[in-house]
TrEMBL record:
It comes from Paenibacillus albilobatus. Residues 7-131, 152-269 form the VOC domain. Pfam families: Glyoxalase. Gene3D superfamilies: 2,3-Dihydroxybiphenyl 1,2-Dioxygenase, domain 1. One of its GO terms (molecular function) is dioxygenase activity. InterPro entries: Extradiol_RC_dioxygenase, Glyas_Bleomycin-R_OHBP_Dase, Glyas_Fos-R_dOase_dom, VOC_core. Keywords: Dioxygenase, Oxidoreductase. This is Ring-cleaving dioxygenase MhqO. PANTHER family: RING-CLEAVING DIOXYGENASE MHQE-RELATED.
Amino acid sequence: MNMKTAGIHHITAFVRDPQKTVDFYAGVLGLRLVKQTVNFDAPEVYHLYLGDEQGTPGTIITFFPWPRSRQGRVGGGQVGVTTFAVPKGALAFWENRLAAFDIPFEKTSRFSETYLAFRDGDGLQLEIVEREAGPLSTWSFGGIPAERAIKGFGGAVLYSMEPGRTAHLLQQVMGLERIGQEGAYIRFRSFGELGNTVDVVANPVERGTGGAGTVHHIAWRAKDDSEHALWREHVLEHGFQTTPIVDRQYFRALYFREEGGIQFEIATDPPGFARDEEPARLGEKLMLPEWFEPRREEIEAKLTPFEVREPEVPRQ
């Protein structure tokens, strides 16, 4: 069976404080909160989704804010760096914006591209790169004009404990094309417009520890339920143990751990985040699956309230 994913569907990370997380990703980075719900496996913890205006696959970063979380250590078996793509010519705007908000950053380069590397308040490693591909954002927030706004994922840097095996999986199972190697990085690319470029650190990386400031998993795109079922067969045929297909309300999901230690998910593009809210009202209130509705009062009492608020934008 020959299968190819379009690229990254979403990336999910651990953080501590929901308000600080929303202030950073919505207020500073300008993403839209498209859904606030709970971790379906631990409903005392939020699951927050931020992305483009509609939460299009390839744009969605999600968070489990757990105030009592230990500090994680970024390392092998994780997505080490999450990359956001902005339009060509927008990098200077983002340099100025990060500086204005006193967010330390450094310029780096690989594969003839310039990156702004920085961290969020929990230590999650992020970067911004200019890319031609992908539609411009239609969402403007926090003083960021749409023509300078983050379009979605540029990709990710994978920290593997077995990089050769991870590279083999990306090509032979996920269907990405190996573009080449530059120094410490091997580049792979899929056919999607966003979330389509993945770099693997070529040397083994010492195992990381989960906790605040680390990525829990990376999810790859399946175009619909029919293809999703084929993906499960495909992964099993290649010798990986995968979960049954799980209903996550806004997509179907299956999970497996690749041999470099990284937790992979494959998620369907549909049905999307407008299945239970009007597109204009996405993310405005806590949405619960029907099986949790009888416990709404109990669940809400355990969650720390937060709001999406306009930042005080420094003069740039």
